[in-house]
Backbone:
């Protein structure tokens, strides 16, 4: 495979706690891994750069990515076990508990991070892989270096229980934002990092400070706002029957990157040249695929045909 997008970061196991807490269900997850699967299912050639534990869960994660069409040429065989996220569903959405001490995802070594071929158009990363040391600093330096050669895309996907003191994480977020061409960030993320500020205004300020070509603030069931070239473009989400929101934001990231790649905009010049209509179309696509992911349990991004069928239905309703 000649990948056009590299997704780097964690692949972990979501232990879903159901009605019987003694029997949780193990489901492959991890924000970057979910985004890689979303890209692959939509048809974008993608390689996942991750560390896979030597245990049964590590093999499950590797097998799941490969089965979904994600290339694993840069996969690292690690001695450490896989990370675990315990997911309990509440009336406010999924609640997470993590078992990450001494696990594979956070032990990156510089020698494990590859030089990438010129045809790679973008590198996407984020979430815990860029928040937990010692690997976060190693991966962060590699990510920053990629900006000399290709588009860089960042999704903070903050887990407050793991990222440390707010002020320290704010500095980390700012440093990563400064080396990113695309930042997709949820309103909840910005509200946690900047609790006394309007999230969209924070996104605009950080964009202005660092010259970020495209910032997208996701608003959950309300849709998303794109900040681009001084413009603010808002797209509302069509209502869906929500079963589970796990992986919706990761699927949004995959949908956004796929649309940009498929429409010739996954370059720095392409990003800066986006028209307002194109931004609206990109948001519509990303919101649609994220909405589809919410209609079934677990992180389960839609495939290409399903996504385009949903778009046609939505556009038909608007036109009727």
Residues:
């Amino acid at each position: 495979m000649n990948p056009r997008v590299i997704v780097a970061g964690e692949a972990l196991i979501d232990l879903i706690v159901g009605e019987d807490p003694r029997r949780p269900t193990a489901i492959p997850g991890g924000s970057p891994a979910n985004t890689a699967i979303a890209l692959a299912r939509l048809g974008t050639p993608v390689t996942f750069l991750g560390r896979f534990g030597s245990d049964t869960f590590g093999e499950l994660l590797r097998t799941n990515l490969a089965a979904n069409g994600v290339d694993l040429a840069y996969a690292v065989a690690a001695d450490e076990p896989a990370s675990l996220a315990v997911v309990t569903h509440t009336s406010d959405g999924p609640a997470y508990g993590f078992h990450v001490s001494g696990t594979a995802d956070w032990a990156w070594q510089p020698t494990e991070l590859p030089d990438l071929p010129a045809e790679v158009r973008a590198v996407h990363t984020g979430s815990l892989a860029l928040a937990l040391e010692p690997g976060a600093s190693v991966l962060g330096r590699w990510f920053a270096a990629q900006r000399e050669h290709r588009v860089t895309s960042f999704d903070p996907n903050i887990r407050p229980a793991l990222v440390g003191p707010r002020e320290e994480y704010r500095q980390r977020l700012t440093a990563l934002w400064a080396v990113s061409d695309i930042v997709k960030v949820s309103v909840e993320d910005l509200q946690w990092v900047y609790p006394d500020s309007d999230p969209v205004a924070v996104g605009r300020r950080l964009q202005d400070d660092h010259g970020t070509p495209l910032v997208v603030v996701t608003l959950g069931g309300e849709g998303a706002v794109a900040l681009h070239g001084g413009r603010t473009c808002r797209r509302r989400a069509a209502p869906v029957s929500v079963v589970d929101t796990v992986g919706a934001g990761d699927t949004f990231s995959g949908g956004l990157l796929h649309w940009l790649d498929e429409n010739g905009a996954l370059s720095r010049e392409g990003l800066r040249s986006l028209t307002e209509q194109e931004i609206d179309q990109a948001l519509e696509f990303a919101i649609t695929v994220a909405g589809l992911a919410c209609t079934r349990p677990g992180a389960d991004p839609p495939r290409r045909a399903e996504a385009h069928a949903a778009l046609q239905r939505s556009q038909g309703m608007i036109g009727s």
Remarks:
- The chain has ten helices and 14 strands.
- The first helix runs from residue 31 to 42.
- The radius of gyration is 18 Å.
